Amino acid sequence: MDKFFKFYKKYGIFVVLVVLFAFFSIAAEGFLNTPSLMNILRQSVVYGVMVVGVTIVMISGGTDLSVGGQVACNGLLIAYMLTHGVPIPVAILIGIVSGMAFGVLTGTLIASLKVAPLVVTLCFMLILNGIAVVVSGGYPIYDMPKSFLFIGQGNIGSVFPFSVLILALAVLIGWFILHKTYFGRQIYALGGNQGAARLAGINVFKVRVFTYMISGGFIALGCIMLLARTNSATPTAGATYPFDCMTACVLGGVSWGGGSGNIITTMLGVVIIAMIGVGLLLMGFDSNFQQIIKGLILLMALSIDAIQRNKAEKA
Q1: Which of 5, 238, 254, 276 could form a disulfide with 71, with the two C-beta atoms 3.0–4.6 Å apart?
Q2: The predicted structure's pLDDT at residue 4
């Protein structure tokens, strides 16, 4: 059993990716077509940019269930500005700043009140989803400027999506923060043991607030990518994103308790989640069945992570 967990920790994500790709290639007609593969890539961009931020939060020992609410509210805000004559760069900047400001609020409440991140972000998820529905009246905002849509729909050449470059830049920034800065080492230390991190002189309050601020910026950027891809902002947008992002992170090796994980393997988790969605859709399964599969995968990944942590604590 120990050999299995060691193998899974090193190569599990790659095995899952290869097995699922082979399965859908055989079972889902049209899966290997260029449009289907490009659809997986485009979906991975939206999830991937957000997962960069969620990965940083989870490595620090936090959780963020408010992703869906942030996507809904921020999407409506940006869409309203774009459809009322606000210049595209200004609307994008305001959207990212508002996401970071919300992250500061979330991190401050968690750090100052010493309340479990799961509880605080769950409350914000309900609050933001309610605000999105009340403010919009349940109606979507659509018809964005064509130049804005290029961010999510445009191609470099004839096939390669422009949005992939933005994802690559987001991954590079996230990787640099975690692995090439002193702040990144503090994030890992905080997730590994908050008490020890405090005794080592780390400002726990500051690190907690900054991790959520950074995550809020990445979530806002992912919201922009989604808005540009779908050309509409709806109050129910991103309803499944919190759990999809967490599934990608845990599947990609981020420990639920924090202290371990990296951006690169979580991106493989993102590709797996997008692949499952496209593959099951091609096989004729609706979104409800997709949620069952994703829930089972999250449960499996959490179970393996819990067993590994328990073994490490006993050792």
Answers
A1: 238
A2: 66
